[in-house]
Amino acid sequence: MDLDFYKKQAIQKQKEHKKFLDGLKKKPPKNLDYIVQETHDEVFEEIDCLQCANCCKTTGPLYTEKDIERISKHLRMKSADFEAKFLKSR
């Protein structure tokens, strides 16, 4: 598998992908979760995440305020301290 090829393709089509994703945000189908899960399953039958790891290398996890509150409470920290120590803003 030529990962450099796929990376170049992703960069070349970045504007097209953004436009597509923005369109999905405006009018998501009722069964979007099922479509995404089905697509995920199809893709990962072909791609070994442990060999690629591009998602983990390029996209960090997103935390909601509720996540931050829950995790900081578990760690016995103030939310602001948790954010300062472990998270970075985008």
Q: Can you describe what's shown?
A:
The chain has 90 residues and is an all-alpha fold. It contains seven helices and no strands. The protein has helices at 3-12, 14-26, 32-46, 49-52, 54-58, 65-74, 79-86. The longest helix is centred in the middle third of the chain and has 15 residues, at 32-46. It starts with a helix and ends with a helix.
Oligomer: single chain
Poorly predicted runs of 5 or more residues = none
User: How can the largest sheet be summarized?
Assistant: none
Radius of gyration: 17 Å
N-C termini distance: 31 Å
Shape: extended
Relative helix content: over 70%
Could you say which structural class the secondary elements and strand pairing correspond to? mainly alpha
Compact overview of the structure:
With 90 residues, this protein is mainly α.
Task: Please describe the topology of this protein.
Layout: H1 3-12, H2 14-26, H3 32-46, H4 49-52, H5 54-58, H6 65-74, H7 79-86
Helix pairs in contact: 6-7
How would you describe this structure in keywords?
mainly alpha, 90 residues
